[in-house]
């Protein structure tokens, strides 16, 4: 006679276990699940007791999965993903899509194109999340992401390049007229260098002036390219960026190219998405639309 799943631990304990494996911290797992830290610790102790196995090593400031715990975590996560996939299939939401992009990509590339997107796909309810980190697709409900870097981006993920990274320097025409052509070293030293999170100025200066050792004194530092570009538009200095992020600014005259050459980087902007047995039509549609925007 079929005994069902009598050997299964309580599903709530497995849900707590899965959350703890991602955070390796009882407090953070508790915050995600909306319960107390003590309740999380109690569920993990109970699970370990029922399995008669130690799943975590308790370290001073964190947790570490034991070898048994690590293997169990992979299987449990796959099981929850299967349940989630089955539930989504049962209750499909074909016209909803969540796209995760970096803040700079969102403001400098995506937003100007949203009117074209809504015209092409009026039935898709698009949600854009701006985040620097590569999200957990399954747990955060993200269908598609755009990220800067080099593949692979993680196990179980597919990636396709949107565009490779080339770097150019831009400056406001007013500041250029005031301080002179930065391609001349003496003029270049007058400008403030506007840094972003990619820290490309040392490599770029070596690329532009390969036989010189510049000791630049003027620096402004931002954690996002979009902020450095706003500072450049405001006449604060020279910023580095992908040409894809300043097309409108250069066309309108808000910015001009500071040097007549671009530096190529061994990285790019990639579309990233989880591999699925059946890909939702909306994911395919949005991915194809994004690629068409770049490649025509």
UniProtKB/TrEMBL annotation:
One of its GO terms (molecular function) is DNA-binding transcription factor activity. Keywords: DNA-binding, Transcription, Transcription regulation. PROSITE patterns: HTH_LYSR. One of its GO terms (biological process) is DNA-templated transcription. InterPro entries: LysR-type_TF_proteobact-type (IPR058163), LysR_HTH_N (IPR000847), LysR_subst-bd (IPR005119), WH-like_DNA-bd_sf (IPR036388), WH_DNA-bd_sf (IPR036390). It holds the Pfam family HTH_1. Residues 9-66 form the HTH lysR-type domain. This is Transcriptional regulator, LysR family. It comes from Candidatus Pantoea floridensis. The lineage of its organism: Bacteria, Pseudomonadati, Pseudomonadota, Gammaproteobacteria, Enterobacterales.
